[in-house]
Design goal:
The chain is built from 3 helices and 5 strands, in the order H-H-E-E-E-E-E-H.
C-alpha cells in the first residue's frame, strides 16, 4: 500500500467526530530546505508508547530526525525525506496497534 494511503487510513481510523477537531497531522516545509511533520498522539493507540529517537544527519541534504515528546511525534528531514518520515511513523504505529 502506498505510504500516503497508509497515512490517510491511520488518520481516518481516529476520526470519530471529536478527535480530529483537536488533534491530527501537520506537514510543513522548512527553509533549510526540508520537511517537518508533527502528529498528535493523544487519544490514539500510540499515546504513551515508547519510541526510540532516530537521527541520521549525513549527508547535508539527506538528513532525518524523528522523536516523540509530550505525546507528539516529530519528524524533520531533508527535501527527499518526507516519505521516509511518514514510513518511520507508520511502521512504529503498526507495532502498537490496539495499544500493544
Amino acid at each position: 500500500m502506498h505510504t500516503l494511503t497508509r497515512l490517510q487510513k491511520w488518520y481516518e481510523s481516529y476520526c470519530d467526530g471529536d478527535w480530529e477537531h483537536g488533534f491530527g497531522i501537520r506537514i510543513t516545509t522548512l527553509d533549510n530546505p526540508g520537511w517537518s511533520m508533527t502528529i498528535n498522539l493523544e487519544g490514539t493507540d500510540l499515546e504513551n508508547q515508547p519510541f526510540s529517537p532516530i537521527e541520521d544527519i549525513e549527508p547535508e541534504r539527506d538528513w532525518i530526525r524523528c522523536w516523540v515528546t509530550e505525546n507528539t511525534f516529530h519528524g524533520v528531514g531533508g527535501p527527499q525525506k518526507l516519505e521516509a518520515m511518514i514510513e518511520l511513523f507508520l511502521d512504529w504505529a503498526d507495532t502498537h496497534k490496539n495499544g500493544e
